[in-house]
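BUG: 3D viewer hangs when loading the predicted structure for this chain

Environment: internal workstation, default settings.
Expected: structure renders.
Actual: progress bar stalls at 90%.

Input used:
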Amino acid sequence: MWIHRQILARTLHLRRFSYSAAAAVLEEPEIPLSYIEGLPKPDPKYAETVLAVPRATSGKNIAAKERKAGRVPSIVFEQEDGQHGGNKRLISVQGNQIRKLVNHLGRSLFLSRLFDLEVRSEFGSEDVIEKVRVLPRKVHLHAGTDAVLNVTFIRAPSHALLKVDVPLVFRGEDISPGLKKGAYLNIIKRTVKYLCPADVIPPYIDVDLSELDAGQKLVMGDLKVHPALKLIQSKDQPVFKIMGARVSDQRRSK
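Structure tokens produced before the viewer hung:
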């Protein structure tokens, strides 16, 4: 309990990201947060630097030209207070690189994964204009082809507090006592919103079903996460419930 309070106390020193806050002098040095053993952490396999070039203007015609050239029109900004953005930069990223990441990770996991972003004067150039860690905030996919149409990134320095929809990964369905009896899993939420220190954003949250019986449920407050994360939604909101067997299933079993 003492360790838990100590970690929470350190998070109070974290400030929402702004350049004025970054320039402020702290009375005491901050202790960097780190991932806790046993909780999900980012897979280093996807630790990739996203390459980008500046884009002078925006608009439908410009965006269409960018996509035709194999680039995805994007924006990167800083998150001042967990909601409102500033210091916006128009950029374009490589279409094949973003498509590969979204396809491999899936949309939800892509939006909860930190990446390094390098903005260069042009692709292939050694002239780096900006290098910063970012979190994808939004990705817009084509309804018919799932092609990536545009991406929004937010800067994610260590002292940033960012709102993140963290995806849930359900495990243990095959050995859940309730599900083995013929009950079914009623999933109510597939993501949960937290205010996260940038250094410990979870790529996902594990949800263990292996010991749950029919009639049992799990609420948001039951999820196992880093103590520095702040749940934005109600802790009593249900995530899932293991429901009794459907009437049609009961009739078939007779």
